[in-house]
Structure formats: structure tokens, C-alpha cells
Amino acid sequence: MMLKKPGKNLANTLKAVTKTKLHEQIVIQIQALIDKGRLKHGDQLPPERELATIFKVSRHSVREAIRILEQKRILKSRPGSGTYIILENESSVVQFLASAITHEKHTLSEIFQFRELLEPQIAGLAAQNATKEDLSILQDILHRQQQELDNNAASKDLDQDFHRALAKATGNAVLLQVVELLDHIFLKSRHVYSQRPQRNRLSLNGHQEILKAVKNKDSSTARELMTDHLNAIRELVIPSNNPENS
């Protein structure tokens, strides 16, 4: 998953630490950047080696600071991806929503109904707020999606990456948390027919049209295209003659 990497700007903000409990000072500085809005939910920290250079400490001190911030549920390390700001405590409503939905009996039809309520609004807000960096990330995902059309597992992951990056582009941390927390539920609507090349192509075409509207800052069209996209995927996954769609 490709998200905003603010590491280049942090070098001018973070300071070298010199006192005994070095990892505690690192924790304080990172928390201060979050409090000031310099680091937000979904932002990725620089690699451990780069942080050690910025703070002028050992990588052990950096690892200890990251461990503490993970215990506080401020950071989350994703193997093979990096370490991200998660701020799980900032919205208990989101946690409640995820818990409530998780414990319900889901049908594909219900999942699509929920996505159709949420994701067109995300597309419209992204069209208003997406930065150049957001657009670059979304375009890169679509480039890789084009290259991986015959790779079913990669296509499924990139589909998920696009919708998550679109939520990030809204600039609304709560919306991003909703999408991330419900990913495991939404995955069912991507999984059933993920082996079909037709699904991969349909997904890519829909994403390309949505991104075009987002680039044009056309919120209304972005919302409409997302609705059309979800309806097209729904019809492929749950044809109208499927008993589950009746």
C-alpha cells in the first residue's frame, strides 16, 4: 500500500537527542508532531535507519520508541510496508462501528449496500481535497494494477490499495480509519470473483474513470462514477438472477 511518506520534511523538524533515556525523548517528539498536526493518521514514518540518523541515536533506541508508541496504539508496524501513524484512540465511534458490523451476519449484497453508502462520498471528498502527492500515489497504484491484470492476488490487493488511498486523499482521518477497520469485511466483496480476469479489468477501468474525475476536482462526477463502479462490480459478483441479490 502506498501512502504519504512525510520523512523528507521531518529531518528539519526533529532534533537530535542527547539525554540518558533517549527512546523517551523520541516518543515525546513524535507525539508532539502528532499534536501539532504535522503527523496524521495514515502517515508513514521514515525507515528505522533514517530515524536513527535524524535523532543521532542507535537503532535500538528507535526500536524501543516505536515499541512504546505501538503499545499506546499510536503506531502500527506493517511487515514489508513500514510503520504508520494509526491514532486508534481518536475515534471510539469508528471502533464501535467496526465491532458492530463485524458481529453481524454479512451477505455480499449487504456489504455492497454499505459500500455504496460510504465510498461515493469518499470519492467526492477526495475530488475536493486530494493533493498532488495523493494523485501521484493513486496513479501509481493504477499503473501497477494495469501491469498485474493477469495476477489475481496482486489485482485484489491493488484494488484494496486504491480504495484505501482514495480514503486517505479525502484528508479525513475518521473516514480513513473506517475504511481500514472494515477492510477485512470489504475484502469478501473483492474475493469471490477475484480469479476472473473480467473482474480485474472492470475494476481497473472503473478506477481510471474515478481518478480522472478526482484530478478534475469534479466531486459530483466522482461520486456518480464510484456508484456506477460499485454497481458494475456488484452485478458481476452477484448477478441479478443470483438468489442472494433477490
Can you offer a commentary on this structure?
It is a single chain. The chain has 246 residues and is mainly alpha-helical. Helix content is 66%, strand content 3%. It has a two-stranded antiparallel sheet. A hairpin with a 3-residue loop joins strand 1 and strand 2. Helix 8 packs antiparallel against helix 9 and helix 11 runs antiparallel to helix 12. The C terminus is likely disordered.
| SSE series | HHHHEEHHHHHHHH
Number of DSSP strand runs:
2
Structural class: mainly alpha
In percent, how helical is the residue content?
Answer: 55-70%
What's the total helix number?
A: 12
- Residue fraction in strands: under 5%
Question: What is the residue-averaged pLDDT?
Answer: 80
Low-confidence segments, given as residue ranges, are 99-105, 241-246
- How widely separated are the two ends? 35 Å
Strand order of the largest sheet: 1-2
CA gyration radius, whole angstroms = 20 Å
Question: What composes the largest sheet?
Answer: 2 strands, antiparallel
Shape by Cα distribution: elongated
